[in-house]
Amino acid sequence: MKRIQIFVFFLFTIAIAQAQAPQLKVNQGSNNNAAQQGGYVWIGSYPNSFYLSLDRNSLQARNGNTSNRFLINPYGGDVGLVDNSTNLIGKVGIGTNAPSAKLHVASRSEVAVFESSNPDNFIGIGNTVNGTFKRKGYLGIYSGNDDIDVGTGYGNVTGKLHLVTASSPKATLLYNGNFGIGTQTPSNKLDVKGNIALSSGTGRIEFKESGTMKSRINWSGTNLSIENKETNGSIILDARNDVVLDAVDDIFLNASNDIFMEAVDDLIFRTGTSNSNRMIINQNGNVGIGTQSPTTELQIVGSENNGTTAALRIQTATNTGQSMYIDGNEIDAIKDGLNLNHNSSEKVTIAAGGGNVGVGTTNPTAKLQIVGEENNGTTAALRIQTATNTGQSMYIDGNEIDAIKNGLNLNYNSSEKVTIAVGGGNVGIGTENIPAGYKLAVDGNMMAERVRVQLSQNWPDYVFADDYALMPLEELQASIAANRHLPNIPAAEVMEQNGQDLGAMQVKMMEKIEELTLYIIELNDRIKTLEEENEELSKN
After folding, report:
1. Residues β-bridged to residue 411
2. CA 466 to CA 317: how far, in whole Å?
């Protein structure tokens, strides 16, 4: 009612100001006119000028004979323009007599000013449900600060705030603070359905905690970088299919701890304007560079080494002239030779120039030179060991080849050709079965320009001793006739079965030679005697 009184005063003031001949007319009413029962009051000039009329049912304001008039009916709740037939048009115009909406304000300057001494100054927005107005939101100032608020309130705890174009919501703010662009049901603080474009020459998206930047996505104008500044932070890329990193220029992933990239299928890296795959990590964890189907943990397919390029090039940062090129069958170290190191110490060196290989030395003077410890049965300059029989090892140093456990075999085409047996060090050539008591066993022919046999027994010079019993020729003849071989010489059957002892045979052969010499001397003496006897007979 207080608002109606204020509005009546407002209209009354307008009527007084615009009336050509101000009048005040009071009618006590007529029982024949229901609208005028109880009387009515006119203020202004009737009927051609602006006037204000008031009866018991309504307050009306009219300008001359125009059919439309402004009506306030406190009983029916009607407020707005009515036509001459008292049909409620339901529109209010300020600055216009033909409003096209419930409230139509026409102005060439500031349309409206809302001012209040209360810290909260706002316009409530709502609807009427079962005759009761329900405020859903507001536009104005809240708590007296300098901010302008547009939002929901007054018990509307689940309502959404929409930004609408073309009669369709394009952005939505939920009651829980989730903001959606392109979606009315955002599930995160920012939920975008569609593309996001940052059109600035440079820019970044920062993630902060308590005002401190923890990570960011940065665009420098040329490079895109993802950075995690947290001390133990990680970067994780996770996809149910493929993870593809594609850039014409560079991609920087920077984290103080780990960077995780996870894909159910393949992780693919692309560069260049041709959108070509450069590296792939497949589902088995194999890494391929230059190939899309790696079959090992790391497979690189590239150019053959030509001294300036290859499938893989490794180069030092401080000595750019020192490079190593690797392709399918070459490891090529440029400039200073190839070093295979352990703990920054050269262990194997392939020298520049002749290609000499040094193990334990950086200056090899032969095709392979190994410098290490002396053999002590557990370590040496070189140790060779089988994978299946770890107890079988061979130690080699400057003057030893020491085979542990099963002796030393020198083989050709997986066949033992020379064997040094365990124990006494007996040697077998062409055989592993060395007869007991023999230092050397040879299965096959042997050729030598010189063979020396050093005997531990007496050489047969004893034949020339004065007390040596030389077998008379008659007995020798009888022995040969009976045995078919010389005395003290093995028979053919024995030689075939047991072979011959070269040293012993040499002694026996020398014995027979010396005996033969004695027989020749004896025969020579007999011949001289016969010659002398013949000479005497010839004289007689």
Report:
1. 416
2. 93
- Cβ–Cβ < 8 Å for 93, 107: no
pLDDT confidence of residue 36: 46
Task: Reduce the secondary structure of 8-76 to three states and give it as a string.
Answer: HHHHHHHHHHHCCCCCEEEECCCCCCHHHCCCEEEEECCCCCEEEEECCCCEEEEECCCCCEEEEECCC
- How far is the C-alpha of 273 from the C-alpha of 288, rounded, in Å? 21
In sequence order, what are the residues at sequence separation of 6 or more whose Cβ sits closer than 8 angstroms to the Cβ of residue 421? 407, 427, 428, 432, 434
Separation between Cα atoms, residue 394 and residue 503, nearest integer Å? 34
Q: For residue 345, give the 3-state DSSP assignment.
A: strand
Rounded Cα–Cα distance for residues 407 and 432 (Å):
10
Segment among 104-113, 299-308, 363-372, 515-524 with least mean pLDDT = 104-113
Extract the tokens encoding 28: 């006590």
Judge contact between 139 and 115, C-beta under 8 A: no
Tell me the per-residue pLDDT of 491-504, one tens digit each, with 9 for 90 and over.
889 888 888 777 88
Q: Which of 364, 361, 357, 370 is nearest to 331 (CA)?
A: 357
Q: How far apart are the first and last CA of the chain?
A: 203
- Average pLDDT of the segment spanning 373-387: 79
Reduced to 3 states, what is the DSSP secondary structure of residue 255? strand
**Six token digits for residue 373:** 């410890």
Q: Is-above-0.70 flag for pTM?
A: no
List 262's β-bridge partners, or say none.
Answer: 238
Closest-CA residue to 106 (of 95, 118, 117): 95
* Tokens read off for 430: 């062409």
With tokens 């894909």, the residue in question is 263
Three-class SS of residue 275? Answer: coil
In DSSP terms, 324 is beta-bridged to 314, 333
The Cα–Cα gap between 268 and 438 comes to 70
Of 220, 261, 232, the residue nearest 244 (C-alpha): 261
The identity of residue 473, as a single letter, is: L
Lowest-confidence pick of 42-51, 85-94, 222-231, 347-356: 42-51
C-alpha distances (whole Å) from 289 to each of 241, 282, 306, 371 are: 20, 11, 19, 38
* CA-CA-CA-CA dihedral for 66, 68, 72, 78, to nearest 10: 170
Assigned token pair, 266: 């393949």
- Position 387, amino acid: A
Report the C-alpha gap between 452 and 101 in whole angstroms: 133
**What six digits make up the tokens of 514?**
């010396």
